[in-house]
Amino acid sequence: MSLKCAVQLGLPEAVQAHSGPISLPELISALSLPPAKAPYLHRLLRLSDNPYNAGSLLLAVLDPVLTEPFHRMSAWFRSENDDDGTTPFSATHGGKMVWEYMAMEPEFATLFNDAMARDSCLIAEVVVKEGRSAFEGVGSLVDVAGGTGNMAKALAKAFPGMSCTVLDLPHVVSGLEDGGNNVKYVAGDMFESIPAADAVLLKVLNVINQLAVPTIRVQTYGHTLCFNQLVNIGSRGDSNTRLPVQTRL
Ligand SMILES: C[S@@+](CC[C@H](N)C(=O)[O-])C[C@H]1O[C@@H](n2cnc3c(N)ncnc32)[C@H](O)[C@@H]1O
Fold it and tell me: Which residues form the O-methyltransferase C-terminal domain (predicted)?
């Protein structure tokens, strides 16, 4: 919650905007805070603005839109609704599922999409550096549920011969310009159709308990590339899975 407060106050931006080290009084002034609050300010974590800034992710996951459903989990467990598709999220938000909710709440959707885009910046950098072989011979690729396209943009830049299509729901991609970097956007539902391409990219998150470090696997299943972010929740790892990126062909 301290991080949320720091981001809401605009602390990272104030530090970033200041040329050189910033003193506490200068920071208080830059943030337009009462001088009496100076003693408390040093307790807040400082985040700096850069493409990997976790601020929007933090604000998204701590937003009541996402935290409220957790307060209803025990009630959901006890309820007899196994076959009606109700989730803690939909029970909180008038029966809407998460993507349906996002389509109707642009402010939260923007926050969430920005959080995803920041994450993709980081993952794309690792994938491009460590997983190049998975893209050899791929002339066209479609990033399914690719959000606002940061992954596709990074891939198109790294592999100029490859054209990239980002498929996502209309409220996410409508209004986004086709990038000059061989990137175009298609609004649609992945359960209805996926644009034709040499390869289909899926970025998924798995929480498993065998790995010692967070790991990204670039796996290919036929023409499907799967960026599998494996997040460790265990304590032991084995030597085969310690690489930051694995390419499985
Ligand atoms: C967790 S976000 C991941 C976005 C992006 N792949 C990334 O890693 O940054 C999931 C994405 O799936 C999209 N999505 C959900 N249902 C979809 C559907 N039926 N068809 C296409 N996209 C969908 C959402 O709009 C959202 O952008």
Answer: 70-204
